[in-house]
Amino acid sequence: MIKQTFIVSLIGILMLAFNPKEAQAQSYAFGFKLGPTLGIQQWNGSNSRQPLIRYHATAFIESAPVENTYGLFAQLGYHEVGSSVRTNSFVNPQTGTVFPSRNYPLGFRNVHASVGAKKKTLFRDRGYLYYGFGLRGEFNINMYSTGYLQGYEGFQNRLTYGVLVNTGIELPFGEFVSGIVELSIGPDFSKQINIGPIDTGFNNSNGNPIIINSTEVTNVFVELSVGMRFLHKITYID
Fold this sequence. Notes:
Strand 6 and strand 7 (127-145) form a beta hairpin. It contains two helices and 13 strands. The chain is mainly beta.
């Protein structure tokens, strides 16, 4: 119930943010940003997995008041989040077989949408430092994994939600074009996976079946972005 309420509220705010009539009534800015994504996951409340490094791309629109000290924003994008499991190499003492170390990724390809507000302060009389906070919803397109982690495929929740916290710098190249560098952190409040025990269909080196215990997986991501911001300026003439 909480998830549905959160997603419906987010969609409603997005519709208001992208209302064409409102956009035509005042100046606004739009643009894009992209860069690397560091995926971190909590498994049953533990951070025992290795990070997953992937990428993201996001388009955004925001209000642009004359004083340029604050703004409301909405954004839509794509990223890959998740984690990985690294196994150590070992030698089977009975057969002498060497099993090399391996890295098993568990990734989620998600479309995300967020709305929020940001505060700006002047930086060296030219650029702006800013920080922001927003609400975020995500839709999972698909997931991918290797090895025994394939046993999780098909058990992911399609809809998740959380918050977005960001900070960055905006450097104008002129009156209408700026470059941006931004750091964002996005913890989820809902679980990407929440399931009971699963028989993976794989056996360990002793021939025993690998059974996955009840699992709760929550995503957190850290993203470093570079991008461009374009100002659409509205001037009223009496």
